[in-house]
Amino acid sequence: MAAARNTTGETDIRRKLDEYVDAHLTRHMYDTDESWPLRKTIRLPKQAELEQHYNQIRAQNETIRDWARQHHCETSEKTKIVSSGLIQQKSPLIDSVTIPDLDTALRIATKQTRERYLREHDRMSALAKEFGLEPENAMNVAKTLKDHDDTDFHLVIQAAHYFANHDCHTMTPRMAPIPGFSAKWLGAPNSQRRKAICQLTGQDNLTF
Question: Is pLDDT of 18 > 80?
């Protein structure tokens, strides 16, 4: 994390580490095969930089160590030699931080990211169980519905169960005996709700 040692503020270092974990979860929110632990490399200063800003770099190093300790993350170190006139001393500096597992990452992440991540994976599990889908296929449906609230999500599930066993070609949307279901709710032929129902039922489209 190159920026970690280029800033003077302890708060900035902690924020950047928090943001790294949060961004990782956001980027991989719809992965079903993500592996842990997650190792984050910390940029080591060049020799001239270390000797010129030694006290500042040591303070930043301790901030990173405190952050790792607070979140129960492991660190690794490399020893640098610092020269001051005729005196040389060894200075161990952190060169990586390892987030051990998903639970740790979720505790570090923002409340919004944590709740979104858990919701999407809960939806994936529910869809996989209810429709006998492989996790990857279930997660694709969850991703299709990522901008829809729980009410819409459960209505999609009800509609998918119904249309898996009933031919909608002879019906109008109003004829479907599903509370809350309508042509307006279903949307245009390329709507996300239609797409999700088709994904769950294995149909190419819903034609009323």
Answer: yes
For residue 51, the model assigns a pLDDT of 85
β-strand 38-41 against 74-84: which pairing, if any? unpaired
Whether the Cβ atoms of residue 51 and residue 83 lie closer than 8 Å to each other:
yes
**pLDDT of amino acid 87:** 64
CA dist., res. 64 & res. 5, Å (int)? 10
Q: Are strands 87-99 and 74-84 parallel, antiparallel or unpaired?
A: antiparallel
Cα→Cα distances 56→3, 5, 48, 49, 66, Å: 14, 9, 13, 10, 15
pTM for the predicted model, two decimal places: 0.87
Count of other CB atoms within 10 angstroms of residue 164: 13
R_g (Cα) of the chain, nearest Å: 26
Burial of 192 (0-12, 13-18, 19+ CB in 10 A): middle
Q: Which of 118, 126, 96, 134 is nearest to 17 (CA)?
A: 96
